[in-house]
Amino acid sequence: MDRKYASALLDNAVNQLASLPGIGRKTALRLALYMLRRDAGYTEGFASALLALRRDVCYCLTCHNISESEKCSICADLRRDHTTVCVVENIKEVMAIENTQQFRGVYHVLGGIISPMDGMGPGDLEIESLVRRVEGGEIKEVILALSATMEGDTTGFFIYRKLQPCDVKVTVIARGVSVGDEIEYTDEITLGRSILNRTAFAADNSHNT
Fold first, then answer.
1. To 10 degrees, the CA torsion angle through 82, 192, 151, 125?
2. Which domain holds residue 95?
3. Using 50, 70 and 90 to split pLDDT, how confident is the model at 208?
4. CATH of residue 31
5. Is the pLDDT of residue 191 over 50?
6. C-alpha to C-alpha distance for 4 and 10, rounded to whole angstroms
């Protein structure tokens, strides 16, 4: 049962904060009381930043990374190698790979991986838009940088099959990322080396790694 506080406004703030992932009511109360102790300018700035995030941040029409315009800063950077596309599950993987400073190509964010248990099928992901990008002819290599899980391997195999009719090289990051690991939790050195030491995608053993 949700606890009610002396102030309805405090109660509402706690409820809103507790709706965030990983935030329980005790933590939510602590955060709300912290906001009350700070000056009004701090709280207004905090709220303004969240409103601006929700209002002004969108998704790149090319790669589906977060952006503040129709094309993200990575896709708009002419110094990047636009012939090499790194396919990742979500935006957090883009951030993780960028932190390695080992990859100078561009990205394609799927928005998830194939997971029937979670109700995620191929049609729920940005796979068709990837195929259209490759069919455009500029892309020479597609790197599958997906988590080393059964769902990640299944997604990689599905993409590989979809790209087979295209004249494009399909590679997978080296298994310096241990089986069962998720990309966003891999340390930067291991992830960077895995990108550099990528290998050709092998359909016959993609489910046996």
1. -30
2. 77-200
3. very low
4. 1.10.8.420
5. yes
6. 9
Q: Do 190 and 95 fall into the same domain?
A: yes
Q: How far apart are CA 31 and CA 73, in angstroms?
A: 33
pLDDT, tens digit, for every residue of 112-140?
999 998 899 999 999 999 999 999 999 99
Interval 191-204 mean pLDDT: 67
Beta bridge partners of 141: 84, 169
